[in-house]
Specification:
94% of the residues lie in helices and 0% in strands. The chain has 141 residues and is mostly helical. It starts with 5 loop residues before the first helix and ends with a helix.
Length: 141
C-alpha cells in the first residue's frame, strides 16, 4: 500500500513545481503557438474564400463584358455588312444609269449617222437614177 509520509508531500510538491514550470515554459508557449497557427490558418482560409468570391465575381463580370463585346462586334459587323450592301446597290444603280446614258447617247449617234447616211444616199440615189436612166434610155431625165 501507499504510505503517506514526508516523501510523498515532497514528491507532490516536486510534481506541482514541475507542472508549474512546464506550464510556464512549455505548455503556454505551445498553446500560444498553436492558437496563432490556428488563427493564421483561419485567416488564410477566410482570405482564400474572399479571393475565390472575388474571382467568381470577376469571372461573371468578364463573361458579361465578353458577351457585350461580342454583341457589339456582331452589331458592328452587321452594320458594316449592310453599309456594304447599300454601297453595292448604289454603285450598281449608278453604273446602270451610266450604261443607260451611254446607250441613249449611242442610239442618238446612230440616229444622227443614219439620218446623214440616208440623206447622202438620197442624193446619190437621184444621181444614180439619172445616170441609169441615161444609160438605159439614152436620154437625160
Amino acid at each position: 500500500m501507499v504510505e503517506i509520509n514526508s516523501t510523498f508531500f515532497i514528491q507532490l510538491a516536486n510534481f506541482l513545481i514541475l507542472l508549474l514550470v512546464l506550464n510556464i515554459l512549455l505548455f503556454k508557449p505551445t498553446r500560444r503557438i498553436l492558437q496563432e497557427r490556428e488563427q493564421e490558418i483561419t485567416s488564410a482560409l477566410d482570405e482564400t474564400r474572399a479571393a475565390q468570391e472575388k474571382i467568381k465575381e470577376l469571372l461573371v463580370q468578364h463573361a458579361a463584358l465578353l458577351a457585350e463585346a461580342k454583341q457589339r462586334a456582331a452589331n458592328a459587323y452587321q452594320m458594316r455588312y449592310q453599309e456594304g450592301l447599300d454601297a453595292q446597290a448604289d454603285m450598281i444603280a449608278a453604273e446602270r444609269n451610266r450604261a443607260a446614258t451611254l446607250l441613249e447617247t449611242g442610239r442618238q449617234e446612230i440616229a444622227t449617222v443614219s439620218t446623214a447616211a440616208r440623206a447622202g444616199l438620197q442624193k446619190n440615189a437621184e444621181s444614180l437614177s439619172k445616170e441609169i436612166t441615161h444609160k438605159l434610155l439614152g436620154r437625160t431625165a
